[in-house]
Amino acid sequence: MNHKIKRRITNATFCRHARRLFAALLGLSLIVAPVFSAGAGESLLLKYVRLAIAGDSITEQKIYSRDLEMYLTVCQPQLEACVFQFGSGGETAGGFLSRMDADLKYFKPTMVTLCYGMNDGHYHAYEPSIGGAYEKALAEIISKLKSENVQPVVSGPGAVDTEYFKSRGLSVPCDVYNQTLQELSAIAGRVAVSNQCPQVDLHGLMLEVLSKAKLALGQDYDVCGRDGVHPHPNGHLIMADAFLKGMGFDGDLGTVTLDYQGKSSAEGGHVLKSFDHGQAVVESHRYPFCFSGDIHSTNSADSILPFLPFNSDLNRLTLVVKHAPSEKMKVTWGEQQKVFSKADLEKGINLAAEFNPNPFNADFERVETAVAAKQAYETDMIKNMAHGLRAVRNSYQQDKEAMAAVDLLDRKMIERWEDLNAKVKASFKPVTSTIRIESASE
Length: 442
Prior knowledge:
This protein is 43% helix and 18% strand. It is α/β, with parallel strands linked by helices. It has a domain at 19-250: SGNH hydrolase (Rossmann fold, 3-Layer(aba) Sandwich). Strand 11 and strand 12 (336-341) form a beta hairpin.
């Protein structure tokens, strides 16, 4: 994982030409919708997906949104996805409804993840009026998106931390507000089902993982942040896990098969360049999702991995060794080495889970740095520049010179995003690594 970024909470401070060609390309992107395949229960993403990540201040933290973009960029590069983060602090579903047309026009998504509810509950005990307003706004958002052939992926709110939630001056204990969030999550689920949208039970997953983590690590271990609301990177990985599964990913990132008596191979985005005398050279055109942080810190996603099946469900780069010469074999990948039984290697081991760090970490970090820079600009672009230009446009509608200036600034704003997005794509490069296998001494 990027040690410079460390998936910490950051302060918040579009693929390629002038506005005319940009709009034309965006129009073409809608042709590839629907985003999901028609096969029942498959929910497979199609190529060229344009993902907008919408939500409140938790989304604006740009942590789970970065995880999602990293997964699409390096773990699923065959999709050639574009991602844009639309988080806005303090927002409710109704707030997004009021701005979605004006803001989403800059990106023209084919898929939008929706993560609202934390503020919709108003930090009160649940009341029917709270649920009614939330349901109405969420249903209208989904209706608007679907009318534009855009696929919503619907989540209700997450959870508040059972140890650290502070009700911001209100006399609402954590269990009461979690009950409110549970009600809103159930509403989001019903709205998703009635509109035939993929749904994400984020609230249930966060509470389940929170319970396991606190039981093992103590009540002081925060999963939903030290303010009880805004998670650190550990909690954001839970969110990313939920949304990636909601999008339909199965977690298979390829397999390398090394056979001491037959044909060896690599598949799923990997090329076996050679295998000789127990040493394999593999060229990879997709990465596993990488971790290398403090396993005891909530500022590191690593610490939640023992309680979240992210690696087994979403991050499987499999090594299979057939006809190994010994009952125990030592596998070296990068600077790490581990001993496995012949039987386990025959079944296959998950390199991404077993080797941390691994030969992909530095390359993963390079891409992540580019993604972080782009997403930081996206917040500034939408919340400050785009909203400001919209106000100017409304005030100077009859002034042709002023309107021409606004159009120019609009193009420049878009061009800068395009440049940052191009840097993300350029930062992703094939990785060549060596896997060495040798008999382990008894």
